[in-house]
Amino acid sequence: MLTTDKNRMDEKIKTFSKFGALEGGGITRLSLSEPALQARAEFKKRVEALGMTLESDDIGNLYATYPGTEDLPRIVMGSHMDSVRSGGNYDGIYGVLAGLEVAETVIKEDIKLRHPITVMVWTNEEGARFEPAMMSSGIVMKKWTRESMLSVVETGGTVTFGEALEASGWVGDEANRLNDKDYCAYFEPHIEQGPVLEEEKLDIGVVAGVVGMVNYDIILEGVSSHAGTTPQHYRKDALRAASKVILDLWEKLGAIDKELVFTTGEITCKPNIHTVVPNYVKFSLDSRHKDPEVIKRVVEVIKALPSEVYGCKLSYEEHWGRNTIEFDDRLLDYVENAANALGYSSKRMYSGAGHDAQYVSELLPAVMIFIPSKNGLSHTVVEYSSPEETWHGANVLLNALVEADKNF
Ligand code: HGY
Ligand code: MN
Ligand code: MN
């Protein structure tokens, strides 16, 4: 079996960890920030040293390409280089660097591929600086327009996405956007960002798709009154009612399916003053599962909530949702076969997190490869995958790529 170079893979992770490094570990490398531009400059230096041609599109997505032996569309591998605030050294960047390590292996070992190969970097996947997440793949896939995104102002600041993009010097040609004529398959290696592979002592996640989800806001409206003078039995306390609803939802949703996940992660309480009984609480409910029937049952539970709880009026709004995305069967087989042939344990699994690959899958055959995350942690400075694990993922990518090259 072909393999990549373990030390070289690790060196890449360590070098890119410097861009946006925080004291004590981890990084803050927000999209198009100075550290993100340093990472892009390093990427440029490396791909050009390998003899690859670097192009960018009109959203600053990067495409580094090495020719194949035939006139065929390109096979693309990649992910993102931006991070959340106080993020880790693997989310996103791992997929770019695994792609780069595979390209380096192909080029230096003169592995003859029929198709050109491209290592890709998506601009602003996280949405941590400019909302929404997966902004650029969303533009390429026409979920929203480039024009509408240019005016998005950074969270907590004044710079727009358009200004940051222009200042980056990476605005290229719209014709360079990922498309289904110049490209024929997409691989996105990524850290799992959850505990399953580690718990089950598996080397590789063969990612069959991205789970569908719904996101609701649930609102309780009561009466604000004086915290000292209102006897308990007179109160219409929206926070008390919300607490009951949240716990009831845990009971009911928890009984639907053991793979269902649901989260209340955001809450607004008004007036949010310690001397006042709250009259208004709004909380989020995010719920995800691969089976649309299960998601339907979640929605039924929400719709069956009582209209009044402890004297407070209950209402709900659907915020947004998405259907489960299925990745390409052939590419799944190539990834799974590559893992087996390399002697790595693997299982098919769904991603609970969103990724650019989910949009790309509407355009091209796409697949993701997961490697384990230590303690299942991600979006934190302690995010970690070992040099062995990052290397395994790159080896699987290399062999799956070779298989795709033969058959596509
Ligand atoms: O969800 C994630 O963290 C990933 O970057 N899409
Ligand atoms: Mn990511
Ligand atoms: Mn992320």
Overall tally of structural domains: 2
Strand content: 15-25%
User: What's the number of helices?
Assistant: 12
SSE sequence, one letter per element: HHEEEHEHHHEHEEHEEEHEEEHEHEH
Q: What is the 3D shape? A: globular
Bound molecules: (2S)-amino(hydroxy)ethanoic acid, manganese (II) ion
Biggest sheet statistics: 9 strands, mixed
Rg calc: 23 Å
Q: How far do the termini sit from each other?
A: 20 Å
| Average pLDDT, all residues | 98
Number of strands: 15
Quick structural overview:
With 408 residues, the protein is of the alpha+beta class.
Structure description:
There is one protein chain. This protein is of the alpha+beta class. The chain has 2 domains: 6-211 and 324-407, Aminopeptidase; 212-322, 2-Layer Sandwich (Alpha-Beta Plaits), CATH 3.30.70. The chain has 12 helices and 15 strands. It has helices at 6-16, 34-49, 93-108, 135-140, 146-150, 161-168, 196-199, 238-254, 292-303, 329-341, 356-360, 387-407, and strands at 53-56, 62-66, 74-80, 117-122, 183-191, 204-210, 212-221, 261-263, 267-270, 280-289, 308-309, 312-322, 325-326, 346-351, 366-371. Strands 1, 2, 3, 4, 5, 6, 13, 14 and 15 form a 9-stranded mixed beta sheet that branches. Strands 7, 8, 9, 10, 11 and 12 form a 6-stranded antiparallel beta sheet that branches. Helix 10 packs across helix 12 (387-407). It is globular. (2S)-amino(hydroxy)ethanoic acid binds next to loops.
